[in-house]
């Protein structure tokens, strides 16, 4: 299928896998990112992504796959942050964003410390922090698409109550929506997206894939559904442009994808 070889693998093969992996992330990050933007939860997503390195470190420490460690830690972090979000009046004089910052950076520091103490285990921190999409295998692609489709099915079932709770939580409660449960499920879906996207754009850039395409789509959308769809398209375009830039200019693929998304956002501002 490929035209030339790089270390025994055809160029077309690994680029094709990278595109498929990036599209899976764009597909699920688009609609979830729309809710992140509407609910002003960008810092929440950042806090979750920062805890992911601790999951990587614990995975190596316990002899588990790093992805399993990340999934476990970010889900626990989502539950904890959700509890903090539901108890704002009980956190004293500290604002919620301050508590999120403490949890995020504390978990990131713990992850770095655990990683540094792993004897005989070499951890490629750059790959986990900034992604290594060009190294994904077919098993990774299958896992990404399976996880993305599963989250999308859950989001489709939750779409109306989540949208109602986003627009007006009190009114949604009066209409019979279990707002706390809906918000908790949404946070868990965000946690799983962080775990999925880590391989593509890395721990430190995953929030950008949730926020930037959705923020770009907001300038052109008139309905929630259109904004979610446009966010998917913009995310997919960012993946394509980023991989092209990475190939042509020998730039890191994950940061190149986020940079492409940022450029598209800047262009969308010219419309205003």
By secondary-structure content and strand pairing, the structural class works out as: mainly alpha
Strand content: under 5%
User: Which consecutive residue ranges, at least 5 long each, have pLDDT under 50?
Assistant: 1-10
Mean pLDDT: 84
Fraction in helix = over 70%
Q: What Rg, in angstroms, do the CA atoms define?
A: 19 Å
Shape: globular
Order of helix and strand elements from N to C terminus: EEHHHHHHHHHHH
How does this model look, in words?
This protein has helices spanning 11-38, 42-61, 66-85, 96-116, 125-130, 138-167, 169-174, 179-201, 206-218, 224-249, 253-269, and strands at 5-6, 9-10. With 272 residues, it is an all-alpha fold. The chain has a two-stranded antiparallel sheet with strand order 1-2. A hairpin with a 2-residue loop joins strand 1 and strand 2 (9-10). Helix 6 (138-167) packs antiparallel against helix 8 (179-201), helix 9 (206-218) packs parallel to helix 11 and helix 10 (224-249) crosses helix 11 (253-269). The protein is globular, with a radius of gyration of 19 Å. Mean pLDDT is 84; it is low at 1-10.
Topology:
Blueprint: E1 5-6, E2 9-10, H1 11-38, H2 42-61, H3 66-85, H4 96-116, H5 125-130, H6 138-167, H7 169-174, H8 179-201, H9 206-218, H10 224-249, H11 253-269
Antiparallel strand pairs: 1-2
Helix pairs in contact: 1-6, 1-8, 1-9, 1-10, 2-3, 2-4, 2-8, 2-9, 3-4, 3-8, 6-8, 9-10, 9-11, 10-11
């Amino acid at each position: 299928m490929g035209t030339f070889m790089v270390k025994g693998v055809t160029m077309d093969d690994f680029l094709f896998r990278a595109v498929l992996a990036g599209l899976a992330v764009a597909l699920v990050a688009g609609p979830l990112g729309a809710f992140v933007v509407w609910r002003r939860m960008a810092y929440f997503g950042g806090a979750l992504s920062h805890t992911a390195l601790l999951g990587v470190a614990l995975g190596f420490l316990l002899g588990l796959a790093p992805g399993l460690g990340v999934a476990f830690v970010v889900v626990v972090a989502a539950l904890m942050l959700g509890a903090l979000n539901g108890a704002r009046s009980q956190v004293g004089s500290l604002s919620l964003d301050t508590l999120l910052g403490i949890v995020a950076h504390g978990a990131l520091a713990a992850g770095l410390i655990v990683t540094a103490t792993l004897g005989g285990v070499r951890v490629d921190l750059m790959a986990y922090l900034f992604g290594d999409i060009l190294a994904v295998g077919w098993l990774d692609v299958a896992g990404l698409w399976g996880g993305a489709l599963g989250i999308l099915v859950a989001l489709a079932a939750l779409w109306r109550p989540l949208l109602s709770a986003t627009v007006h939580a009190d009114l949604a409660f009066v209409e019979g929506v279990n707002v706390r449960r809906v918000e908790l499920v949404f946070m868990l879906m965000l946690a799983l997206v962080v775990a999925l996207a880590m391989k593509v754009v890395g721990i430190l850039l995953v929030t950008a894939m949730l926020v930037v395409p959705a923020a770009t789509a907001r300038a052109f959308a008139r309905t929630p559904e259109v904004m979610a769809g446009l966010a998917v398209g913009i995310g997919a375009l960012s993946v394509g442009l980023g991989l092209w830039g990475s190939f042509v200019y020998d730039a890191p693929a994950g940061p190149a994808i986020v940079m492409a998304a940022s450029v598209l956002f800047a262009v969308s501002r010219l419309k205003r």
